[in-house]
Amino acid sequence: MSYFTGLHKPASFYKANRPVVIPYKTLLQLDPSSSVPLYVQVSEQLRRLLQTGSLLAGHKLPGTRQLADLLGVHRQTIVSAYDEGLAQGWLESRPGSGTYVAAHIPAVQPQVLETPALGNPPNETPGYSFAANPVLARPLLTNQAGLRLDDGFPDIRLAPIADLSRAYRSYFRWGNPQQHFGYGDTKGHLLLREQLSLYLNETRGLHTTPENVLITRGSIMGLYLTSQVLLRPGDVVVTGETTWAGAVMNVQKAGATIRTVPVDQHGLDVAALANLCDRQWSIGHPIRLVFVTPHHHYPTTVTLKADRRVWLLQLANEYGFAILEDDYDYDFHYLSRPILPLASADQRGMVVYVGSLTKSVAPAFRIGYVVAPSALIDELARLRRIIDRQGDPMLEFAVAQLFKTGEMQRHFRKALRTYQARRDRFCELLTDELPEVLQFTKPDGGMAVWATFDPAIDMEALAQRAGQQGLFIASGLTHNPPDQLLNGTRLGFASSTEEELERSVLILKKAVSE
């Protein structure tokens, strides 16, 4: 039975012919234990009745004393609830008559209260349509396990938390206090851009000024902004056959087409790239951008040889494509002084250099950077402004202070020694405990080992079995090129102590044997 007479009549019928009987005692369900005041509960529930068509424009509400008696609350509660509606404009008071739903409220078709809504509830499925982009259909990995051989993350226990806390406190003693809580520079805090510029020039051989640096919330924001600015639908972008899925998604989201070239033990096959450049040029569809991780190729960790780097830059100059260089873990190279980035040898502004402190310090340090000619930095900042007005000026200032005092550099040196010892121990464990089921090459740098498993091993099932025993490993499925099964995954060692690595390898060994 419907609460409403003549449910399918138009709203004007109710307004002009007869009142609708509203069972307020049933419809208004108050929770005295809630932190929301009772008068707000009454006001909000009345407003929802209006939105669902249960209350119509011009409908007279019960007197405050009458409704208070129905609901078992103090009269002042109802007075305050009506005052809310009056202040918000959906109720109106008529002197000598009472309180009414405002006459200007649009008519809404009443709903049958006893009939449940069909389909999913509105907090799950919206009432309007939208297109789910298949490019973004990538599962979110959650790690509930106590131990982890992750993608190659830093150990947050080594992060310079005490130094960072002191730097945060100094923020409020520095400069004009009124500036601290206002809008800042979209490009990032000037002090951090100055310090990063000095640091990158000193350690990577770059030739930058603060005007060449844009601070972002991690490297993936830099990749997104660069892809959106440089790429147009149909542009051709080249990556390695194995590459970072996050970069591919950003490129595809911009509408570009992916072409791949092989990757071997010396990095990206630049000879294959040169042939592809010729083919694309001959058909009038030249390559627009090449994405590379030359220092430690993702995911296989190999380093791009010096002669290939020179050739890659020559190809960029010849064919006019941009190079997007993601240098995600440059600070951790163990054998010798690392080869300088491509950007250090760029003489014509062809390289967009992207980096991050996320992999160097901790994932919560959402600070990345883009280094490029100032004209591009200005355009990236204009785009960034409409999606993320600015970064976190307090965090940026604090991190800048750590660079200025040398604390960040000391952290890098300490972490480098620790991670090298963990790499050595982890590789020993893999060699001793799993020699028959996986192959790997001891990486010269980075924070993970690229391991390929026996083809008979189901990597997805292995990851599930390990997880059930308290160890997180990724299945590695996202690393597979189209129509290829590498049966490999990245096993991160940096975030675990040597004792944790020993336990992890034993669990992995057990999971393999099951």
From TrEMBL:
<dbReference type="GO" id="GO:0003677">
    <property type="term" value="F:DNA binding"/>
</dbReference>
<dbReference type="InterPro" id="IPR015424">
    <property type="entry name" value="PyrdxlP-dep_Trfase"/>
</dbReference>
<dbReference type="InterPro" id="IPR000524">
    <property type="entry name" value="Tscrpt_reg_HTH_GntR"/>
</dbReference>
<dbReference type="InterPro" id="IPR004839">
    <property type="entry name" value="Aminotransferase_I/II_large"/>
</dbReference>
<dbReference type="GO" id="GO:0008483">
    <property type="term" value="F:transaminase activity"/>
</dbReference>
<dbReference type="GO" id="GO:0003700">
    <property type="term" value="F:DNA-binding transcription factor activity"/>
</dbReference>
<feature type="domain" description="HTH gntR-type">
    <location>
        <begin position="36"/>
        <end position="104"/>
    </location>
</feature>
<keyword id="KW-0804">Transcription</keyword>
<comment type="similarity">
    <text>In the C-terminal section; belongs to the class-I pyridoxal-phosphate-dependent aminotransferase family.</text>
</comment>
<dbReference type="InterPro" id="IPR036388">
    <property type="entry name" value="WH-like_DNA-bd_sf"/>
</dbReference>
<dbReference type="Pfam" id="PF00392">
    <property type="entry name" value="GntR"/>
</dbReference>
<keyword id="KW-0663">Pyridoxal phosphate</keyword>
<dbReference type="InterPro" id="IPR015421">
    <property type="entry name" value="PyrdxlP-dep_Trfase_major"/>
</dbReference>
<dbReference type="InterPro" id="IPR036390">
    <property type="entry name" value="WH_DNA-bd_sf"/>
</dbReference>
<dbReference type="InterPro" id="IPR051446">
    <property type="entry name" value="HTH_trans_reg/aminotransferase"/>
</dbReference>
<dbReference type="Pfam" id="PF00155">
    <property type="entry name" value="Aminotran_1_2"/>
</dbReference>
<protein>
    <submittedName>
        <fullName>Transcriptional regulator, GntR family with aminotransferase domain</fullName>
    </submittedName>
</protein>
<keyword id="KW-0238">DNA-binding</keyword>
<dbReference type="GO" id="GO:0030170">
    <property type="term" value="F:pyridoxal phosphate binding"/>
</dbReference>
<keyword id="KW-0805">Transcription regulation</keyword>
<keyword id="KW-0032">Aminotransferase</keyword>
<keyword id="KW-0808">Transferase</keyword>
